[in-house]
Amino acid sequence: MAKRNSSEIPAVGYIRMSTGRQENSPARQRAEIEHLAEREGYRVIKWYEDHGLTGTESANRPEFQRLLQDAERGRFQAILLHEQSRFSREDIFDVMLHWRLLRSAGVDIVTCQRGRLRFDDLGGIITAIIDQHGAREESMKLAQRVSSAQRLRAKQGKRIGGVVFAYDREICDESGAVVRRVHFRDRFRKPQTWTSRMVPSSARRSRRIGRCRRLRSRLRCRHPAASRPSRWRASFPMSPTKLCWLRSNRSKTYWARSPDKRMLTTSSKSPATA
User: Fold this and answer.
1) d(CA 179, CA 125)
2) What percentage of residues in the chain have a pLDDT greater than 90?
3) Domain boundaries, the chain
4) Strands (E), the chain
5) In the CATH hierarchy, which top-level class contains the domain 9-142?
6) CB 168 within 8 A of CB 185
């Protein structure tokens, strides 16, 4: 076991990635920070990591807030970063509040690209401000590009956002042939030249939803009190009788269909517990 040098400066490493698609970013940042610490004589005593969080809102980054609190308590003397934008992409006047807090606590900010940010001379301050302005502008341009791409996808009738519940993806190759069907709970990254389309996850589920809607229509005709329920919940027990029941949260009344499907009955108890 290697013996630690007592002259090493106690420091912490801070890692941030903006989206969940940057799977390799934390490991890469950690490796660069460890190399920086070994080269410059720092000893990393703790790591702070914010995954999938934007750098434009420091209040919503819990690990970043803990880092600032520990800095005020004097638990370390330096913060090691892969680059300045990992610390923050906020407006210059907002990030200056963090810089002032760290300077008062005697904590340095050290990056792999620029080294230690020097706030004790005019040149260092100007350099830090220019880099921060560039990080902010890059974030704003990226947001504009993403917004423009989403508008284009919406005009083309394509899906925007994450997973759509109960809808699978059919993956098609360059010729348009379906090569794979991906369940909505599974992940699959298709090649850029391939396309995908949304399909219902289960025909059985669709048939059940259709039966529920038809039963609800019949209830509205036969029971005026249930014509406008605030919210419906449907259950389809797997039994030989194929019993279906609905409950209105407003009236707390249950409507059940008899096994012979010829009549509707009402009850104050659920058919599952009756």
Assistant:
1) 56
2) 34
3) 9-142, 167-200, 213-267
4) 9-17, 42-51, 78-81, 108-111, 115-116, 167-172, 178-182, 195-200, 232-235, 245-248, 254-257, 264-267
5) alpha beta
6) no
